[in-house]
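DM from R.C. (forwarded with permission)

"hey, sorry to bug you on a friday — could you get me a structure for this? deadline for the figure draft is monday and I only need the backbone to look sensible"
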Amino acid sequence: MFIINEISNEKIKVSISEIEVNELEKLTGFQFDWENEIDFEVFKLYSKKSNEIHGLISIARIFEELRIEIRLIELSKVNIGSKRKFSRIAGILIAFACKEAFSNGFYGFVSLIPKTRLIEHYQNKYGFIQFGKHLAVELKSSENLMNKYLSND
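My reply, with the result:
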């Protein structure tokens, strides 16, 4: 997996792992209070070389509904907007949730409740479909996201 430096166009190798509680307590560069997500699974996307955290995602496994719910997703402040440092972060985090959904036998079913202003963005960029207040991807859309964002190409 890789993110792209927006200035140099360099590919930077990244990994995803569950974040440790002590890391949440020391977290800087993020708007949300991630310690509030301590009862859920929180994963970090970080550079392999520098260990810099570029993005976070909190997920809940809803076994009775066969889906992964993205509770919260956030990019570090330097990676937001038109002057962002790196791209592909949100796509990788969403694709990771899709991979987890397949691993759990949920057929790639991932949902989230977006901020209203982001609905079109999730639909156009990531292939989400609206179901009431929820947006969701599954099967082919999830596979497409995994192929695009989780590969090393």
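R.C.: lifesaver. The CA atoms of residues 26 and 35 lie 10 Å apart.
me: no worries. The chain has a mean pLDDT of 95.
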